[in-house]
Amino acid sequence: MHTNESVQIRGRLVDAMRGHQAHIDFDSALENFPVEFRGAKVQGAPHTAWQLLEHMRLALDDILEFSRDANHESPEWPEGYWPKADAPPNPKAWDESLAKFRRDSNEMNKLVSDLQNNLLEPFEHGDGQDLLREALLVASHNSYHLGQLVFLRKILEAEAKTRKDDTQDTPVVERLKRQSLLDMISDERK
User: Element (H or E) spanning 187, and its range?
Assistant: First the structure.
């Protein structure tokens, strides 16, 4: 493969891992994620936002370390890839998880971008995995779980809006109530 082709392929892989183009990127999905939603459970949803974020971070860390360290030992599946708690253990944990994910993403991007690393050469360790496979795994894994996070946030926002609307009538509801009251009064006068 020509160097120019390799650079282009690597650039596209990095874009896919970042989530650009047809997929939402990490920062856009998690920007200003409301504190009150981070550990909130949604009926029918298997995970909270915290669990999804931590799962993404733990999986990325494992993939990165597996890709660059033959002595790396992966956690037990599945318990080693998911946090036990629904919510962050303390106020700083969310931001720390975001920062660690970003650092590991940058490291994975560097690994893939480095022309010295053969994308197709199987690692000496593992079962035939190579850097291309690991990069594609990161891209698809991130895309899937970022989609879950965006959907979860939309559900939580809708639920919060519904709760607010139930306790505080909108001007339209107020007008309808007044009209109904006027209708009842005029009906009683007849």
Answer: helix 171-189
Q: How far is CA 33 from CA 102, 111, 143, 162, in A?
A: 16, 29, 17, 19
Number of domains in the chain: 1
What pTM does this model have?
0.84
3-state secondary structure of 25: coil
What average pLDDT does this structure show over 66-90? 97
77: which 2 tokens? 């599946």
The CB-side HSE value for 34 (13 A sphere, CA atoms) comes to: 11
pLDDT score at 21 = 72
Q: What is the pLDDT of residue 49?
A: 98
Domain range for 55 is 3-189
Cβ partners under 8 Å of residue 9, min gap 6: 1, 119
CA 75 to CA 99: how far, in whole Å?
A: 21
DSSP run (H or E) holding 139: helix 131-167
CATH number at residue 26: 1.20.120.450
Q: How many other CB atoms are there within 10 angstroms of residue 105's CB atom?
A: 22
Question: Contact at 8 Å (CB) between 9 and 119?
Answer: yes
Find out whether 102 and 26 touch, Cβ atoms under 8 Å: yes
